[in-house]
Specification:
This protein is of the alpha+beta class and about 425 residues long. The chain folds into two domains: about 210 residues, Alpha-beta prism (UDP-n-acetylglucosamine1-carboxyvinyl-transferase, Chain), CATH 3.65.10; about 210 residues, Enolpyruvate transferase domain (UDP-n-acetylglucosamine1-carboxyvinyl-transferase, Chain, Alpha-beta prism), CATH 3.65.10.10. The strands form six sheets. It has a four-stranded mixed beta sheet. A four-stranded mixed beta sheet has the order 2-14-16-15. About 50% of the residues are buried. Bound molecules: uridine-diphosphate-N-acetylglucosamine and phosphoenolpyruvate (PEP). The site of phosphoenolpyruvate has 13 residues, from α1 and α12. GO terms for molecular function: UDP-N-acetylglucosamine 1-carboxyvinyltransferase activity. Its EC number is 2.5.1.7.
Length: about 425
């Protein structure tokens, strides 16, 4: 277990570029399993979760070649399904959430798929029913091996069908789409998730020869084809990293230019930070965060306290609420942070309270933050990163705090943020990996 030692209280200055999007990378890498031809993917973030997935594909027999920084070639002309039965596979697959998205492609191309209970952040219940109900609608047989916690699907043939998903699951929609592109006939998925991650996956599949309409909406229509060809695909900038950097700039009273953010794919994120009073200026495809000495949270028009809540896209992503929460601690004014999707993602506020932040955890889903308006800094402390996004929020808190803080279990941060210490130190942060 590694630790970050953070000397806080320094403002940062300069330019920073977001990495490629983690959650898109996990989808599009799995899509390489859908063809026996070469798939070239560029702007892959070389972070723990993504590297683990690439390793799983490699062990399945997919030829994976690193052509340059973030550039990979995948060729799944030979896939060794026997690997799925090995203890090594179980060990690797439970290490991350994204591994579940190999199921759809394997089922579509080889008629079977197995996955152990996938891992990922421990941020509440993370059911996978939507995935398997959708695959069953396409004609797959589904078994859950309770004793070993294995999910198994198989099918002689997949047939398109209409389905109304019980929830707009991000990885669930990706899995169903990847199975449906090779099913016979037409599949209609209503209440589909439509995050940029999924839009990108669908665009990539179309470039491979799939027939998908409704991309970007919650109603996808897929006309199955008999095979897919290779393609070249570039991953979008990571919108969660962009949001994390906006929050970091505000909290540390810094002026930062976030370069090449892919503004048209950020949805409501910049505007949500503006509602916290942060000056987020658009300059071409860059975001300039400035005048951060003071920021004041808006109230609703009727004067009542604002709520920042997550919602399926195009609502605000749940993956940024921890950052919104920490940023609010130094704002002027109050805000209710409502994490609707996950019930165990707000417990890290205890640490912020220890550091001097004014927060009331109302229940597992809601926390009220009363901003300090920089009347005093947070106090440095020792903490543990419980999950990837709480981890970055605690890092931001530590960077703004007076004194030296320690964050243990930073592997959680490394799961999603590439060389975060090196990149922030280049802007003037004082973070040491020990
Ligand atoms: C690898 C990956 O891509 N992980 C992301 C993916 O996880 P993942 O695909 O696992 O998350 P899901 O979209 O399936 O669901 C997330 C949570 O929200 C709940 N839910 C979901 C949809 C809905 O309409 N109503 C609802 O309540 C689910 O019950 C679950 O508790 O999407 C999540 C939601 O954006 C993100 O936090 C994760 O970072
Ligand atoms: C929750 C997240 O990741 P995962 O779904 O991989 O656990 C996240 O990226 O914030």
């Amino acid at each position: 277990m590694s630790t970050f030692k953070i000397e806080g209280g320094y403002s940062l200055k300069g330019d920073i570029e977001p990495q490629g999007a983690k959650n898109e990378a996990l989808q599009v890498i799995c899509a390489a399993l859908l063809t026996d031809q070469d798939v070239f993917i560029d702007n892959i973030p070389e972070i723990r979760d993504v590297l683990k997935l690439i390793e799983i594909l490699g062990n399945l027999g997919v030829k994976t070649e690193r052509l340059g920084v973030g550039q990979y070639r995948f060729n799944a002309s030979k896939v060794n399904l026997e690997f799925l039965k090995s203890p090594e596979y179980t060990q690797q697959a439970i290490g991350l959430r994204g591994s579940i998205m190999i199921i759809g492609p394997l089922l579509a191309r080889f008629g079977q798929g197995f996955i152990p209970q996938p891992g990922g952040d421990k941020i509440g219940r993370r059911r996978v029913d939507t995935h398997f109900i959708g695959l069953q609608k396409l004609g797959a047989e589904f078994t859950f091996d309770k004793e070993n916690q294995w999910y198994l699907v198989s099918a002689q043939k997949l047939t398109g069908s209409y389905m109304l998903l019980d929830e707009a699951s991000v990885t669930g929609t990706a899995n169903i789409v990847m199975a449906a592109v090779l099913a016979e006939g037409i599949t209609t998925i209503y209440n589909a998730a439509c995050e940029p991650y999924l839009q990108q996956l669908c665009k990539m599949l179309v470039s491979m020869g799939a027939k998908i309409s409704g991309i970007g909406s919650n109603l996808l229509t897929i006309e199955g084809v008999s095979s897919l060809k290779g393609c070249k695909h570039r991953i979008l900038p990571d919108m969660i990293e962009v949001g994390s950097f906006i929050g970091l700039a505000a909290m540390t009273a810094s002026e930062i230019c976030i370069k090449n953010v892919g503004i048209e794919h950020l949805g409501i994120i910049p505007e949500s930070f503006r509602r916290l009073g942060i000056n987020v200026a658009q300059v071409g495809d860059d975001l300039l965060i400035k005048d951060t000495d003071h920021y004041e949270i808006e109230s609703y028009i009727d004067g009542s306290i604002m709520t920042i809540a997550d919602a399926p896209w195009p609502g605000l992503t749940p993956d940024l609420l921890s950052v919104f929460l920490v940023v609010a601690t130094q704002a002027k004014g109050s805000v209710l942070i409502h994490q609707k999707m996950f019930e165990s993602r707000l417990f890290f506020v205890d640490k912020l309270i220890d550091m001097g932040a004014q927060i009331i955890l109302c229940d597992p889903h809601r926390a009220t933050v009363i901003g300090l308006d920089r009347k005093h800094s947070l106090r440095a402390t020792k903490m543990v990163s419980p999950d990837i996004r709480a981890g970055i929020a605690l890092l931001i808190a530590a960077m703004s705090a007076k004194g030296t803080s320690l964050i243990d279990n930073i592997e959680q941060i490394d799961r999603g943020y590439e060389n975060i210490d090196g990149r922030l130190n280049a802007l003037g942060a004082k973070i040491t990996r020990i």
